[in-house]
């Protein structure tokens, strides 16, 4: 074990000497490794950062939640849109029937929404707000956090009381730091009392935020517009119980919907059951293609860098042939010479890899501070960069090291 550590130490010293004595030659050879590692890890870092941000947005929908809607979220190439156009929208009748029949659900909620609404309070107004209306189970199908106030009471939801819950941005725009709870605002011409404010979530990459939303009870919305009309995007949200798998909940929901819609065996569904795994799978496919492109582009640079490292090692063997002869005449085994040059090649590649990782890290800091977009260099990508450097070092250094280990000591000393 001590010999291995000594070999590694000597190899790094030889590599450093090579770098110091032949700065330009070594730097040009390391450039390919540096650029290759930089491209691959930069692509992977960007992809992982974006994927994690989008995935956190998708996760807000709930991993055990299903959405009964007219249109599917994912379309295939031969998408039969004419079939979906004639489908009925999810209705209050569907919702009421599911609420009574679903045994595996912790909550079944009917939701409608309309966008680009103007919300007013005295002389203040906020444009571009989304107005959402939902049945009482909304707090069971979504994870709600409040910065102030509370959720609707059962009696408020049942009676359709003129109450609402505001997103943080809406509250800031209307009240400018004043206490919003208890005050009356105007929504679609109706006066409603603010009973709560959602906790600020901030912008995400899919717009899955409550900050610009206004939530009212469904029974209040019935007096304001037609909640069954498709222009208000009706949907039924079903969240399964924690101890039951999503597949079981989906199976029960599909069977109940077919029964409610009175579909015959063999007849196609006239509804879509959407879930977050559909989006996650599409993200994996999309970002997988980007990663492959990163491997291909970076791979060419690494290939060039690998040839450069192999060239340096052949030159290094040539320059130290007499030293190799002396080492072998003093009893050094072939594997000792072999490992010595392999470790040196690996050390050079690790140097190039570390330079590449350093450039990526500097890039993440610049983007984070200049563009105000948090980019993270994950440990897995650091490990990948070092791992690729080690593999390239082993491959590029093996043949020169093998040639060095096979030298005849007498001929080597003579040279």
From TrEMBL:
Domain MacB-like periplasmic core: 26-254
Transmembrane segments: 27-47, 292-314, 335-363, 375-399
Ranges of residues in domain ABC3 transporter permease C-terminal: 296-409
Source species, domain of life: Bacteria
Subcellular location field: Cell membrane
Bilayer disposition of the protein: Multi-pass membrane protein
PANTHER family: ABC TRANSPORTER PERMEASE YTRF, MEMBRANE COMPONENT OF TRANSPORTER-RELATED
Taxonomy of the source species: Bacteria, Pseudomonadati, Bacteroidota, Sphingobacteriia, Sphingobacteriales
Protein's recorded name: FtsX-like permease family protein
Major subcellular location class: membrane
UniProt keywords, alphabetically: Cell membrane, Membrane, Transmembrane, Transmembrane helix
A Gene Ontology term for the protein's cellular component: plasma membrane
Organism of derivation: Pedobacter frigiditerrae
Similarity field: Belongs to the ABC-4 integral membrane protein family.
Molecular function as annotated in GO: transmembrane transporter activity
